[in-house]
Amino acid sequence: MNISRLTSLRLHEEHQANLDLLARIEQALVRMPHGGSGGPELTKLVGTLGQHLAHEVRRHFEFEERELFPRMNGGDDGDLAALLLEEHEAIRAVSAEVLPLTRAATAGTLDAAGWGTLKRSTLELVERLTAHIQKEELALLPAVDDLLDEATDRDLVLAYTAL
Fold first, then answer.
1. Contact 53, 95 (CB under 8 A)
2. 20 to 30 A from 112, CA-CA: which of 47, 52, 121, 155?
């Protein structure tokens, strides 16, 4: 991929970090015994996921929705912006199910049934978020590179960094 704008590079770097975390959590959950609960390593990873969803993913989505999608709607990429926004909403819905479970897991109050629900919901989240990131890598980042001029790119990446 040839990225020419700082905003696209910043989003790309976050995508890569997200994919790494999602792969680690997926592998750990798949290895979790059926009907079992997470051990200390999985509990720590689940806590990291919860913090990541509550802060980093939220910030990433809000930036795209506030700064990028409106610019895309004014051009040829309005359909892409609408699709990505729909996916944000679906991911937020699954995240809303996962977040309380991550908090309970890290507090040590999640029972075996709760771990099963956490596993199912988190694996769904991993699937949705991974597919979404791939779509953004293939379609959004090139669109952003084409859409932004140098001055707007600089302003946006500074504003994003300040969030």
1. yes
2. 52
Q: For residues 9 and 2, give the distance between their C-alpha atoms in angstroms, rounded to a whole number.
A: 10
Q: What is the CATH number of the domain that holds 120?
A: 1.20.120.520
**How confident is the model over 9-47, as pLDDT tens digits?**
999 999 999 999 999 999 999 998 877 777 899 999 999
Write 52-55 long-range contacts (CB < 8 A, 24+): 52/18, 52/21, 53/95, 53/98, 53/99, 53/102, 53/125, 54/99
* pTM, full prediction: 0.93
End-to-end alpha carbon distance in the chain: 26
Q: What is the DSSP letter of 32?
A: S
In a domain, 1, yes or no: no
Token reading at 10: 């910043």
Distances from the Cα of 162 to the Cα of 37, 150, 153, 156, 157, angstroms? 38, 19, 14, 10, 9
Domain that holds residue 158: 6-162
